[in-house]
Amino acid sequence: MIQINDLSHRFPNGNLALDSVNLNIKKGEFVVIAGRNGSGKSTLVRHMNALLLPSSGNVIVNGMGSSDQKDHWDIRQAVSMVFQNPDSQFVGMTVEEDVAFGLENLGMASDNIRESVDRCLQFAGLSEYSKTSPIHLSGGQKQKVAIASVLAMYPECIIFDEVTSMLDHASCNDVMDLINSVHKAGKTVIHVTHRLEEATTADRLIVMDAGRIVLDDTPSNIFLSGKVSDFGLELPPIIALAKKFKDSGILQGYLALSKDELLEDLCQLILKT
Description:
Elements: E1 2-10, E2 16-25, E3 30-34, H1 41-47, E4 56-61, E5 64-65, H2 72-78, E6 79-82, H3 95-105, H4 110-123, H5 139-151, E7 157-161, H6 169-184, E8 188-193, E9 204-209, E10 212-217, H7 219-225, H8 237-247, H9 259-272
Parallel strand pairs: 3-8, 3-9, 6-7, 7-8
Antiparallel strand pairs: 1-2, 1-4, 4-5, 9-10
Helix pairs in contact: 3-4, 3-5, 4-5, 5-6
């Protein structure tokens, strides 16, 4: 769906943010892009819907090149973004008005708008807040409104750019559950984060550093490699513990990526002894 060829991006101040990046993302994939601050991950995803344009190289979305301005509307219809701060995205006085805003601009019929808004609010678990002002919601609920507003536009791909970075642990889990549901509903999902625990359900984990892709594999293979610490990232505690059990030979087979999986592995080990 998205092809990136030798992409480099230099900011007006001369700083090189992306350095000859090559990447293909298939329709229906769930891809997590991780890296420390300044690694280039947010700059990269902003090229995927033509918010930024290449200094050199090219970005192709569904056969359309981002350097061709006439294709920008269609590219942004195909690939939508949810940003770190949802307050900057709100335009409606109520939750339902905010979700309806983009559809109204497209000239959709009122009955169809009502149906789409109700469907997206129900999907995001926000139906009871339809008449509430977004500014009165919690941080996690605000992010869910932003996600529902994007879903209403029927994009093929949704990019989540550090959407959990300002949330507490419980809200993070709630928003990640919704992101996983979006993927299960058939959307291509690209999730930018520095929290590796949010990569455990992804098909693919990409780690960036200094404007380059330095790791690209399944989350399990990358965690097992032990290389994430080379690029300023830390394994989640449960995965680090599971890796120690596996490296020491106590546990065999795949690497447990959650506390439930690790507990199951340990229970099975005890039953066998």
